[in-house]
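Changelog note: in this version the structure field was regenerated for every chain. One regenerated record is shown below for reference.
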Amino acid sequence: VAGRFPGRGGAVYGPERALYVLPHDRQTLEKIDLVPYVEACGAGLRAIMSGHLHVVALDNLPNRLATHSSAVVEGLLRRTLRFSGLLLSDNLDAPEVRARYRPGQAAVLALAVGHDLLVTESPEEVYRALYEVVQHGDIPLERLREAAGRVWAAKEWLGLPGERFVDLPPEEVAEVPALASEVARASLTVVWGRPERLAGPGAVVLSSRSRRADGSAVEADVRRLAGNLLTDVSFYALDPDPAPTQLDQVAASAATARAALLFVDAVGAGADWPGLKAMAALAQTCKRVGLPVGVFLLGNPHVLARFCQVDLLAYLPGHEQPYLEAAFSFLLGRSGAPGRLSVTVAGM
């Protein structure tokens, strides 16, 4: 699968719009950005994933994502490059999309412009939205058949059966947890700082109160790991828009603690998320009373600059359990932090 079409290597991130912008004119686009896609298509590429970025040369609407642009999908990819394979969306719950649409709305727009397979953390909402627009005729049934045909062709090429679900061999299923842990540890990125002063007894541990796509609570895993692996900890789960009394309670606990650890869940969150402001304020409060402060930011790397004042700033791309386990393993000196940020963060 070739990713982030029509290419994010030359894109510039604009924090004020929460959006990557590919600023090149059409000539530069063809000479630089499109070259690997042209070569891959000529070599028989069968699948492409679109990118959540705005392409200035092709779209006059300033905030429209390539994911939702018929000029990019139908015009450039299908007609100009003559690509007839499977087109996947990038994650429709990503911050760039969430800042503009609900997942269901984003899915409808992506299907309408020509995507065949939709990637989402909100399958029930997406299914309902697609069902309604197809039933009402807002998207022609033929577009749905076209997408299903390409998915079916891809499965046949891969040798997959026609059933909706595919059972993995038992030996492959057994390897999944270890592989997930390996990927999580490899993705842990330390922006700056060291963990030595943060894993001792008497720390206050703060976590965003949030839910994963499967309904499980992120803060429950943080609480369990902190309780099992650290000594004499105080734990607080912070509401998305915390009340002043909750903030005062945490500040009072920090005054008697020896260190502060913050797990900030920014998966799907934009720069204006209230919980982000609250977590940044608590980090500053802990610093003012003389505590060493460590922050593990989960999800959106573009908000890392909110925590420039802390002693340890680390990043993980997800909030699933293996990522949290990787954070605590690093804190305790059991594993390293070999990851690297794949984006440039404004303000850092």
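Spot check on this record: The radius of gyration is 22 Å. The chain has two domains: 2-158, 175-331.
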